[in-house]
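Backbone-to-sequence.
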């Protein structure tokens, strides 16, 4: 891709496919054809099969795609992927919808799908200081509203640890001895609200330290294996 004065501002789909490390299935034909799903992933990140199918349907209605069709790769499993020439691929990319596709066409820079991260939270019932709920959500305020909806009490958020939702299960395991037996909930623990936030904070630090040490150990073992 070039800007109005001719300077390169990014990569076309052919450039992405030819880049080192690019994972694209290519036919062995005289005029090679490329797996459409692979090319879409290069441009806009992870895509579902349904997304690919919808794009192909639109492309068939609007474009002349005489070389597009299913192709069975030698090592392929399952349904044969749809392939097309690079010229056809450039046209198909022009039909991609969404902000990631628009950004790619404007900049020529490959886009990645944002991974949704979840926060770790500590909550309590307004009338109870002896137990807390430790859970995860990417929309904590909505989660709190849902918990208290239809109840004659409030749910209060004691703390939110951004991006730490992935530690929910390990923390639950470490607090198994404190799991509350006063109800059916599996995320409630008999820990006083005055110390709950400190307990969770310390466990987060402990788990992250364990992760770091494990990563170092794995790295040392890997180096020793190839030494």
């Amino acid at each position: 891709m070039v800007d109005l004065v001719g300077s390169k501002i990014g990569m076309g789909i052919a450039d992405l496919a030819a880049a080192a490390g690019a994972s694209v299935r290519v036919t062995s034909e005289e005029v090679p054809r490329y797996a459409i799903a692979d090319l879409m992933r290069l441009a806009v990140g992870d895509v579902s099969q349904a997304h690919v199918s919808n794009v192909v349907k639109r492309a068939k209605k609007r474009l002349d795609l005489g070389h597009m069709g299913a192709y069975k790769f030698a090592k392929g499993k399952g349904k044969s992927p749809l392939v097309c020439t690079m010229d056809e691929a450039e046209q198909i990319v022009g039909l991609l919808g969404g902000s990631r596709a628009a950004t790619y066409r404007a900049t020529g820079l490959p886009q990645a799908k944002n991974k949704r991260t979840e926060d770790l939270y500590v909550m309590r019932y307004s009338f109870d200081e002896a137990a807390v709920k430790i859970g995860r959500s990417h929309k904590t305020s909505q989660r709190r509203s849902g918990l208290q909806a239809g109840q004659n009490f409030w749910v209060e958020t004691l703390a939110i640890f951004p991006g730490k939702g992935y530690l929910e299960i390990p923390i639950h395991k470490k607090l198994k001895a404190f799991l509350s037996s006063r109800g059916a909930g599996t995320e409630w623990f008999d820990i006083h609200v005055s110390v709950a936030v400190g307990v969770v904070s310390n466990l987060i630090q402990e788990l992250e330290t364990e992760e770091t040490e494990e990563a170092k150990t794995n790295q040392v073992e890997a180096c020793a294996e190839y030494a």
